[in-house]
TrEMBL record:
A GO biological-process term: response to stress
Entry-linked Pfam families: SprT-like
Lineage, uppermost ranks: Bacteria, Pseudomonadati, Pseudomonadota, Gammaproteobacteria, Pseudomonadales
UniProt superkingdom: Bacteria
InterPro entries: SprT-like_domain
Name of this protein: SprT protein
Residue stretches making up the SprT-like domain: 7-158
Length: 164
């Protein structure tokens, strides 16, 4: 676990404690988040997950903004309870008042899309193929049938795959 990230989480909690005059339970923190999200706060579990790749690619902004954003969710939950809106006025007040940050809902980090496997299906039309996702390919294996809208022939897997 990167020490800077844990130190920033602790700093955010100390700021909140100084501001509210109240002690907050520290969360479990992990860097096991993948995909589009930079961070996620699990309110009922008092847990934070951060995206390692986005952290490494956007370290300074991530530490400053994203960590505070997620900590603010847990602090708001502990202060105001489970019925508040995720990016509602309570969360926004913590972002502005405690952390002196703009309460931005979403990050603007560049996220590389991972390549996905496509299964190639053919019909009777010349030079025409259809790239099925893994989910649709699995449906075919379970008996689902698809037809070409032009020639009305059934689409058949030709045994090939490609990555897009």
């Amino acid at each position: 676990m990167p020490e800077q990230l844990l130190a920033r989480v602790e700093t955010c909690y100390r700021q909140a404690e100084a501001f509210f005059g109240k002690r907050f339970l520290r969360p479990v923190v992990s860097l096991k988040l993948r995909g589009q999200k930079a961070g996620v706060a699990y309110l009922d579990e008092n847990r934070l997950r951060f995206n390692t790749q986005l952290y490494l690619e956007n370290k300074e902004h991530f530490l400053h903004q994203t960590v505070a954003h997620e900590v603010a969710h847990l602090v708001a939950h502990q202060l105001f309870g489970p019925r508040i809106r995720p990016h509602g006025k309570e969360w926004q007040q913590i972002m502005r008042g405690v952390f002196d940050l703009t309460p931005a809902r979403c990050h603007q980090y560049q996220v590389a899309r991972r390549k996905s496997r496509r299964y190639i299906y053919r019909c009777e039309c010349p030079d025409r193929d259809f790239a099925f996702s893994a989910r649709r390919h699995a449906l075919v294996a379970k008996g689902h049938r698809y037809r070409c809208k032009q020639c009305n022939a059934p689409l058949v897997h030709n045994g090939q795959q490609r990555f897009e």
